[in-house]
Amino acid sequence: MRKIIIAGNWKMNKTTVEAIELANGLKRDLYDIDAIGIIVCPPFTAIDEVAEVVYQTNIGLGAQNMHWEDAGAFTGEVSAPMLKELGCGYVILGHSERRQYFHETNETVNKKLKSALKHGLTPIVCVGESLEEREAGRTFDVIRDHVTNSLKGLDKEEIKKVIIAYEPVWAIGTGKTATPDQAQEVHRFIRDLLEKAYTREIADEITIQYGGSVKPGNIKELISQKDIDGALVGGASLDVKSFAEIVKGAQVSK
Ligand SMILES: O=C(CO)COP(=O)(O)O
Which domain of life is it from (predicted)? Predict the structure, then answer.
């Protein structure tokens, strides 16, 4: 059985003081959740302090991006060994905001992915089409391109360590969620691509999260879809109550 995982992507939100408060609230409200995985991804500046709060709890820690080199003259960047040293177990790669605003491409995502795996970080690789692409009937072409090229060159053992997040760009921060059927259709398509590239057993083991305006009110119907194995939550992960409700909703509905 593949693991159900709810991750919070805090994006560029929360000072260190605010991040500690949020992490402490989640630790208090979610201490007894054991059936599903929980991850928080604070901004770089708060990772060290949040690591202390979630140390030896059921809450995993992730970063939102990294560079593919271990070290060097890359002003403003951080590397996988730096994240590992702080206690990160996960890293989000290829988020649409990075693709859209910071020139992230499948090629750079792929290099980062290989570095993350080399250093024992679990990558959460984001894929998803824009509204324009969906309306032009190009959703499956875009997803195929993101999945095939971002995940290129991984062997059977490596691919099993990857989490994929399907995030339709038009559903991010807009309050417009994909319907459970729309999301399921793309999740199934991703799993079929993995099956063709690897095997049925491997495809069945890979966690595919949905992201895009996930809220306490819609998690249950999303998670009850066969191929939706969790969520990558933005806005609703910034508040203890709403993130805890999403986690609990996922636990009872899967
Ligand atoms: O981008 C997202 C998570 O990575 C989704 O953001 P929202 O939940 O705010 O739509």
Answer: Bacteria
What pLDDT score does 254 carry?
73
Spatial contact of 16 and 239, defined as CB atoms under 8 Å apart: no
Is 96 annotated to bind a ligand? Reply is no
Beta pairing partners, 211: 232
The answer to whether 114 and 150 have CB atoms below 8 angstroms apart is no
85 alpha carbon – ligand 1 mean position (Å): 27
- Residues 149-176: tens digit of each pLDDT: 999 999 999 999 999 999 999 999 888 8
Show the beta-strand stretches assigned E in 72-149. 90-93, 122-127
The ipTM of this complex is 0.99
Q: Total domain count for the chain?
A: 1
The CATH number of whichever domain residue 123 belongs to comes to: 3.20.20.70
Task: Give the pTM.
Answer: 0.98
With beta carbons less than 8 A apart as the criterion, state whether 170 and 176 touch.
Answer: yes
Task: Tell me the sheet residues that pair with 124.
Answer: 92, 163
Work out which ligand 1 atom sits closest to the CA atom of 96.
Answer: 1
Backbone angles phi, psi at 102, to 5 degrees: -125, 25
Asked if residue 10 belongs to a known ligand binding site, the reply is yes
**Ligand 1 centroid, distance to 212 Cα (angstroms):** 5
